[in-house]
Amino acid sequence: MRELAAESVDLVVTSPPYNLGIAYRSYDDTSCRETFLSWCSEWAREVKRVLREDGSFFLNLGASPSNPLLPHQLLLTLTAPDFFQLQNTFHWIKSISIETKDAQTISAGHFKPINSKRFVNDCHEYLFHLTKSGSVRLDRRAAGVPYADKSNIKRWKHTGGSDQRCRGNTWFIPYETIRSSTDQRPHPASFPIALVEQCITLHGQGEESILLDPFLGIGSSALAAQNLNIARFIGFEIDADYLQVTRERLAVPATSPNKSPALPNDGEPELPL
Ligand SMILES: C[S@@+](CC[C@H](N)C(=O)[O-])C[C@H]1O[C@@H](n2cnc3c(N)ncnc32)[C@H](O)[C@@H]1O
Q1: Is the alpha carbon torsion for 136, 229, 62, 24 positive or negative?
Q2: Can you tell me the distance from the alpha carbon of 23 to that of 226, in angstroms, rounded to the nearest whole number?
Q3: Which of 62, 123, 255, 265 could make a disulfide contact with 110, Cβ separation 3.0–4.6 Å?
Q4: What residues pair up with 181 in beta bridges, in sequence order?
Q5: CA atoms within 13 A on the CB side of 66
Q6: What are the backbone dihedrals phi and psi of residue 191, each rounded to the nearest 5 degrees, phi first?
Q7: Which atom, in ligand 1's list, is nearest to the CA of 22?
């Protein structure tokens, strides 16, 4: 990243290792908390340097039930006075259960079940939107949803007659279900392509954007950039095999949808915690 010019990137969307002991092929995900936070400061300083003044840095962070403070500790580090401003906090919802109007409970999405008497299943991750000024303009409507009650379009002036409202900060983006985790999930911690597409659309700078992912994994953010015809994408990954998977995924013709590898879910053994 030190080779990239200052203020040369519009958008950074990334999911770094979380230091939760995940079995990556090359990276050791078990450093002590202090070392981890200072390493994160180091690469995030580079993110700040290469990001334009009106750029957006979307940082995806998860926790584990036995390590719930990690995202918050890292966020506090990255929002020190001369660092980033926290402009928005999004919740990436992987699974949700809601009650319908006719009092039925329906569930959608997938999660890794936890076998515990203390902890509930963890069905979300954070997506922190960090900027230099805290006041970067976003395209809320482009990343929005249609009104459920269409009469609101005429009733409220701020709609401007458009059937699209701000989606809010809870984003339901499920993994796809798979049968065999070994064949189809070549990386232990990838995020859905749609999560990155949503960030690109919300940032709203269009196809001319330059997008960076310093922790590429198997290239979900590169796939999102390709799907949305983003002018230039830059990614870094230390593991050659993950990089190879990225190349293969990018080579799939656009006619067949590039799917995110899914998370083994309900059919898988529970995590003992
Ligand atoms: C959470 S994963 C990212 C997954 C990615 N978002 C995806 O959807 O495939 C973090 C990745 O960072 C990589 N990594 C760790 N240290 C790195 C470094 N110093 N430079 C580049 N990549 C690194 C790991 O190998 C791992 O693949």
Answers
A1: negative
A2: 28
A3: 265
A4: none
A5: 10
A6: -105, 165
A7: 1
Q: Label the pairing between strands 114-115 and 9-14.
A: unpaired
Report CA(1)–ligand 1 centroid distance (Å): 14
1-10, 61-70, 262-271: least confidently modelled range: 262-271
**Structure token pair of residue 111:** 């999660």
**Nearest to residue 221, comparing CAs of 64, 85, 63, 58?**
58
Task: Read off the pLDDT of residues 141-154 as tens digits, 9 standing for 90 and up.
Answer: 988 888 888 888 88
The SS3 assignment for 139 reads: coil
Q: Residue 113: exposed, middle, or buried by beta-carbon count in 10 A (0-12, 13-18, 19+)? A: middle
Please name which of 33, 32, 31, 132 lies closest in space to residue 73, comparing C-alpha atoms. 33
Q: Ligand 1 centre from 158 Cα, in Å?
A: 41
Q: How far apart are CA 70 and CA 269, in angstroms?
A: 25
Residue 19 has pLDDT above 80, yes or no: yes
Is 235 touching ligand 1 by the criterion CB < 6 Å? no
Distance 231 CA to ligand 1 centre (A): 22
Q: Which pTM was predicted? A: 0.91
Q: Shortest CA distance to 76 belongs to which of 135, 134, 130, 15?
A: 130
Query: Which class does domain 9-272 fall in?
Result: alpha beta
- Asked if 228 and 197 count as a contact pair (C-beta separation under 8 A), the reply is yes
